[in-house]
């Protein structure tokens, strides 16, 4: 099994260099919102282990919100972030980028503070790397290669079924399963066996699985004693924290919409401020700790809680944990994504984002919040940042497609099935 | 949101179309208008003979709706107009991104429409008893009217006896509006599929399915009753859909020996409106005498053996509860909400239908061609179709969501590469599949288009007070 890794390089843009950088990043696209995978600057399509990647200039339209807390973020840097998800370690991916697209990346990062012609590109990228506070992988272990092979398999099985339509009319599902398996062995597309899991991964995985609950258990006396105080302070803040959910500026929405709904999936990049003070910061750190554990152990096979349309997502702190970036890759339009948030995982959104300035009012950290439909939708749109370049290695495939394809491959490789199982399996093709 | 006083539903301020489709007024026509003279238009609107929802059993009905461009033309202040929803302000054809989401690309692109690429200003809907439409038009289209408005397009209709041009019973299923406030779903409610839907999903100024009020413009006046400019109004979506009846039935006949059965599997109902699923299940908001037609969900047919998952009516309303499947106990609900221990990855893709319902008020037009006649080689090709009209309070979450995520998406419910067999734009995806008893999905690829869009716009169907405000005649 090949676990997925991620990378993120974050660097402040040199004053005055933003316009040039935008012009350069636009050349990576073949049109608004659509990357050219073979563009000469950073030909994403070359990288066979790369699932998704993006380059974003984190323009913060909400800096003014800090005034409500009588604070500000003077000298707030204008960040350029380059992030992505891949098979294997993120650092290795950066190494591959540096080796094969060094010139293009140098060109991009030359717009950032502290990068010059003499810089060692890889060392510089590693030095400017940011680890996520939590990250989500739709299907841990499923590689880009596997995704392409399974899509080809489904297509081949479909072709065979339509070509043999007449001879299948009276056949049982099990019989058809047998025949498809025989056809695959004889003339089917290649299916690469799963690679060896990297040494130490399982050990670290199990240590985390045991360690986090153990730590929680050890902390529990403290947590129990602290809970009433925590809840008291929480309620006090929840009833007084400012809610900032004006209708987003139509020009801002138009910029975002222009690059959306071009393919089966969309990107989402949002940027905002953590509420000032230690209370919200430590609440957030604790929430991320629990979230990270859930994402490692519970939500590893096709869905994040009830949501089955997210490919990769991550939360990353910036500016000494004063600002938070949320970046995700999801299927369908933003409106259906937000409806899923509200109707299926409002509690999860509330846990994290209610610690951000301006979020709709929550109760007990879990209730309300995202359930305030229109304020929540305005909040998300207002914090969303246009993504300059976005790449997805399998633009036509949704997470549901990928899950279906994987189930088809797994079913095909099974020696025997009951008639019911075979019927349900055939229905996937 | 307990204790909402629904006795306060103001039918006398509401246009009648929200309450009834005027089914017995079989003759109808819709006039798409631009404002030629604002002053004259305001004067006409100030006294426009609008039929309200408290007027029942009328012999004729007149309804008036405006686009945002129409409000501009009337001279309504920008601040007031900006209080309407972004979709309404943008218009159906105003932004490429919206056209992409609606499937209005390729042969359906607004640049090819017969009207609507440039938004009209107003819509006049006229309903009359058989034979009485001409005289109604005469009484409405006065000299003053002709001075005020230019008629951009007359959308005539045909009474096809409750059937649409492909030959299927139309308007079989509608949400039942909870006028009496029998239920008050709050923010945290988890409900099974029901057909009783909050007033606020269709009428602005009342609580919706989240127990909240949809945004709308307010104006400052002394009378609090008059400040809510959205109250008793609704967004009216109109699309002129051309149906290629010959192509539909010829395709059905070319693919299956039983053309009717195959066509019914594309539609998801029998031609007479009977469901493909076993009906008779009690559902809140489905009347006892309607159980045979609407007393069903698809929960027991996840494979689509009786009704294909991609069938038109199943896409348009998948009849799912907030948590799909059979009702669960508290613990099971919690487990489901956390999304753990669930092997089937697709059973929860489509949920909470109650947030995506439409009140349909469309009318057929053109010449009816029977399926038998349509397949004959020398069949005529008369124009026919549907003036699709629906009412909703949140265009983005209702009409656009259904049109985008459910109807035109090639990825509905994990299907992968199918489009709506009836209305789908084949640029996105062009397949349809019917599961066979042995599990194999019989696939129909490279389907031709059967429905094309020839025009459309987003209107606002105001309450009477608001209409008079727009006319500038009454200080609201």
Any overview of this molecule?
The complex is a heterodimer of chains A (429) and B (476). With 429 residues, chain A is an alpha+beta fold. Chain A folds into 2 domains: 4-119 and 126-141 and 198-392, no CATH class; 145-194 and 398-428, no CATH class. Chain A has 14 helices and 12 strands. In chain A, the strands form 4 sheets. Chain A has a 4-stranded antiparallel beta sheet with strand order 1-5-4-12. Chain A is globular, with a radius of gyration of 24 Å. With 476 residues, chain B is α+β, with helices and mostly antiparallel strands. Chain B is built from 15 helices and 13 strands. Chain B has helices at 38-46, 68-74, 78-81, 86-90, 96-102, 133-140, 143-148, 245-255, 259-267, 291-294, 312-316, 330-338, 371-374, 396-408, 464-470; strands at residues 27-35, 60-66, 122-128, 149-156, 176-177, 196-197, 234-243, 359-360, 363-366, 384-392, 432-435, 441-444, 451-461. In chain B, strands 7, 8, 9, 10 and 13 form a 5-stranded antiparallel beta sheet that branches. Chain B has a 4-stranded antiparallel beta sheet with strand order 2-3-1-4. In chain B, helix 8 (245-255) packs across helix 9 (259-267). Chain B starts with 26 loop residues before the first strand and ends in a 6-residue tail after the last helix. The mean pLDDT of chain B is 93.
């Amino acid at each position: 099994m090949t676990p997925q890794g991620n990378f993120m390089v974050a660097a402040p843009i040199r004053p005055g260099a933003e316009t040039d950088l935008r012009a350069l990043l636009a050349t990576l696209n073949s049109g608004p919102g659509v990357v050219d995978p073979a563009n000469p600057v950073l030909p994403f399509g070359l990288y066979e282990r790369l699932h998704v990647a993006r380059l974003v200039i984190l323009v913060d339209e909400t800096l003014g919100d800090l005034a409500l807390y009588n604070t500000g973020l003077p000298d707030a840097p204008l960040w350029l972030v380059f992030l992505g998800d891949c098979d294997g370690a993120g650092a290795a991916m950066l190494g591959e980028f540096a080796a094969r697209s060094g010139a293009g990346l140098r060109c991009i990062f030359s717009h950032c503070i502290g990068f010059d012609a003499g810089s060692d590109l890889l060392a510089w990228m590693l030095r400017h790397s940011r680890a996520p506070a939590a990250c989500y992988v739709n299907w841990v272990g499923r590689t880009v290669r596997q995704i392409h092979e399974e899509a080809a398999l489904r297509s081949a099985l479909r072709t065979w079924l339509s070509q043999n339509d007449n001879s299948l009319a009276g056949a049982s599902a099990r019989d058809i399963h047998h025949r498809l398996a025989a056809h695959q062995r004889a003339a089917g597309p290649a299916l690469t066996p799963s690679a060896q899991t990297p040494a130490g991964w399982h050990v670290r995985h199990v240590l985390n699985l045991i360690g986090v609950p153990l730590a929680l258990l050890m902390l529990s006396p403290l947590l129990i004693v602290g809970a009433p105080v925590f809840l008291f302070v929480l309620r006090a803040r929840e009833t007084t924290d400012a809610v900032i959910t004006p209708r987003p500026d139509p020009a801002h929405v138009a910029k975002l919409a222009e690059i959306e709904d071009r393919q089966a999936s969309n990107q989402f990049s949002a940027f905002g401020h953590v509420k000032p003070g230690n209370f919200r910061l430590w609440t957030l750190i604790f929430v991320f700790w629990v979230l990270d554990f859930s994402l490692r152990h519970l939500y590893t096979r096709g869905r994040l809680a009830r949501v089955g349309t997210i490919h990769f997502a991550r939360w990353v702190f910036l500016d000494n944990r004063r600002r938070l970036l949320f970046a995700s890759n999801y299927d369908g339009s933003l409106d259906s994504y937000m409806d899923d948030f509200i109707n299926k995982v409002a509690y999860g959104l509330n846990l994290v984002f209610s610690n951000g300035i301006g979020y709709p009012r929550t109760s007990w950290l879990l209730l309300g919040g995202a359930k305030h439909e229109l304020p929540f939708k305005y909040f998300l749109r207002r914090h969303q940042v246009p993504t300059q370049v976005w790449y997805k290695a399998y633009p036509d495939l949704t997470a549901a497609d990928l899950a279906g394809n994987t189930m088809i491959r797994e079913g095909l490789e099974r020696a025997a099935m009951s008639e019911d199982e075979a019927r349900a399996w055939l229905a996937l093709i | 949101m307990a204790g909402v006083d629904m006795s306060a539903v103001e039918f006398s301020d509401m246009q009648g179309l929200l309450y009834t489709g005027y089914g017995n007024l079989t003759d109808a026509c819709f006039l798409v208008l631009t404002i030629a003279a604002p002053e004259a238009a305001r004067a006409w609107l100030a006294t426009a003979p609008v039929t309200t929802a408290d007027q029942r059993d009328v012999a004729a009905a007149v309804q008036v709706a405006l686009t945002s461009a129409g409000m501009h033309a009337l001279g309504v202040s920008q601040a007031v107009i900006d209080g309407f929803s972004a979709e309404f302000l943008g218009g159906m054809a105003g932004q490429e991104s919206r056209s992409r989401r609606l499937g209005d690309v390729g042969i359906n692109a607004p640049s090819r429409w017969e009207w609507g690429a440039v938004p009209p200003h107003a819509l006049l809907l006229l309903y009359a008893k058989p034979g009485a439409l001409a005289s109604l038009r005469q009484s409405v289209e006065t000299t003053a009217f002709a001075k005020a408005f230019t008629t951009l397009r007359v959308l005539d209709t045909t009474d096809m006896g409750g059937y649409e041009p492909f030959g299927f019973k139309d308007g079989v299923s509608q949400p039942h509006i909870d006028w009496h406030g029998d239920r008050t779903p709050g923010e945290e409610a988890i409900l099974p599929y029901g057909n009783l839907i909050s007033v606020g999903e269709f009428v602005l100024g009342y609580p919706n399915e989240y127990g909240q009020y949809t945004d709308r413009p307010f104006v400052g006046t002394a009378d609090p009753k008059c400040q809510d400019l959205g109250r008793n109004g609704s967004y009216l979506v109109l699309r002129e859909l051309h149906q290629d009846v010959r192509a539909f039935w010829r395709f059905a006949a070319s693919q299956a020996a039983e053309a009717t059965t195959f066509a019914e599997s594309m539609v998801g109902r029998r031609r007479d409106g009977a469901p493909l699923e076993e009906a008779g299940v009690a559902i809140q908001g489905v009347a006892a005498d309607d159980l045979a037609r609407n007393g069903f969900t698809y929960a027991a047919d996840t494979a689509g053996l009786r009704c294909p998952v991609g069938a038109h009516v199943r896409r348009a309303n998948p009849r799912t509860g907030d948590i799909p499947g059979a009702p669960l106990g508290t613990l099971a609900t919690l487990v489901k909400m956390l999304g753990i221990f669930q092997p089937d990855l697709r059973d929860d893709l489509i949920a909470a239908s109650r947030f995506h319902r439409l009140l349909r008020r469309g009318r057929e037009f053109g010449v009816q061609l029977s399926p038998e006649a349509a397949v004959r080689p020398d069949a005529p090709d008369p124009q026919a179709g549907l003036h699709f009209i629906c009412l909703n309070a949140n265009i983005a979450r209702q009409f656009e969501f259904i049109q985008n995520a459910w109807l035109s998406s090639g990825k509905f419910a994990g299907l992968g590469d199918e489009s709506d067999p009836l209305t789908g734009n084949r640029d996105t995806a062009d397949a349809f599949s019917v599961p066979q008893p042995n599990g194999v999905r019989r696939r129909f690829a490279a389907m031709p288009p059967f429905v094309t869009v020839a025009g459309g716009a987003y209107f606002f169907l105001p309450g009477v007070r608001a209409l008079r405000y727009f006319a500038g005649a009454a200080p609201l």
